[in-house]
Specification:
CATH topology of the largest domain in chain B: Immunoglobulin-like
Largest sheet of chain B: 6 strands, mixed
Number of domains of chain A: 1
Shape of chain A: elongated
Number of strands of chain A: 8
Largest interface: A-B, 32 and 36 residues
CATH superfamily of the largest domain in chain B: SoxY domain
Helix content of chain A: under 10%
Radius of gyration of chain B: 23 Å
Number of helices of chain A: 0
CATH architecture of the largest domain in chain B: Sandwich
Number of domains of chain B: 2
Largest sheet of chain A: 5 strands, mixed
Structural class of chain B: alpha+beta
Oligomer: heterodimer
Number of helices of chain B: 2
CATH topology of chain A: Immunoglobulin-like
CATH architecture of chain A: Sandwich
CATH class of the largest domain in chain B: Mainly Beta
CATH superfamily of chain A: Immunoglobulins
Number of strands of chain B: 9
Distance between the termini of chain B: 47 Å
Structural class of chain A: mainly beta
Chain lengths: 105, 158
């Protein structure tokens, strides 16, 4: 399991920064079948959240219509130096976290 | 001669019977597609009785995609993103995938800019709907039509 996070290392106070995230995951829809006709059970990431110094700033509910290896980007205002915590949860107990730090001047 | 006919008839009868046996399970087991009614119901679940007005939302998807397995999508909303006028959430729906939901994205004033991007799957050429829920309780929407040449979701696994 690998997460790719892109957060600027430094930013000016009040600057709007873009955060890019990617989590490797098959995102099996639950609608596909094997050659024998058996349904392949659903296995997706259902939720994503980002906290900035402990406060949630972005959250998403994901569905099978999100492509494999969910790639999500969003924006936030750089308010203070600190840490971004990212969390993905999903089917079959899937749970992954990642973090990135930023220094705000 | 007559024997030939009878075998041919038997053969046709057998194949016809086999065709029925084969097609029936395929038709019944096929995943149900979301319908415009399901799309409308999914939207109503989010907005309730509120009126959804067109505007403010910009939904960017390529008009023609070769591979429905990964389609880049960006939704942005014209909003100052101040503490009393911001986008609370963005909801994206589709018309013909097996289910009408694509994603719900919860934002806030701290986002600074109401814009999200992701990659989605499309099982067919269809309409995509993005709805933004603003802090004042109003709902705004945008739609986009996408033509898909290779569909996602329902192909056999390899």
């Amino acid at each position: 399991m690998a997460a790719l996070i892109n957060v600027p290392a430094r930013a000016k106070r009040g600057e709007i920064i873009e955060i890019k995230t990617l989590m490797s995951h098959i995102m099996e829809t639950g609608y596909r079948r094997t050659a024998n006709g058996e349904v392949i059970p659903r296995d997706i990431i259902t939720g994503f959240a980002c906290r900035y110094n402990g406060v949630e700033i972005f959250r998403a509910d994901l569905f099978p219509a999100i492509a494999a290896n969910p790639f999500i980007t969003f924006f936030t205002v750089a308010t203070e130096s600190g840490k971004f915590d990212f969390e993905w949860i999903g089917d079959n107990g899937f749970s992954e976290t990642a973090s990135a730090s930023i220094s705000v001047e | 001669m007559s024997q030939d006919y009878s075998t041919r008839r038997q053969f046709l009868g057998l194949t016809g019977g086999a065709a029925v046996v084969i097609t029936v399970p395929i038709v019944t087991l096929r995943p149900a597609r979301a319908t415009p009614a399901m799309l409308a119901a999914a939207i109503r679940n989010v907005v309730g009785e509120a009126v959804v007005r067109p505007g403010k939302v910009k939904l960017e998807v390529p008009p023609l995609v070769e591979n429905g397995n990964t389609v880049p999508m960006t939704v942005s909303v014209a909003s100052p993103m101040t503490s009393d006028d911001y986008v609370k959430s963005i909801h994206v729906f589709n018309e013909k995938n097996p289910q009408p939901h694509i994603g719900n994205f919860y934002l806030g004033a701290r986002c600074g800019r109401a814009q999200i991007s992701t990659r989605i799957r499309l099982a067919d050429s269809q309409k995509i709907v993005a709805i933004a829920h603003l802090a004042d309780g109003s709902f705004w929407s945008a739609t986009a039509d996408v033509v898909v040449t290779l569909a996602a979701c329902t192909e056999e696994a390899t």
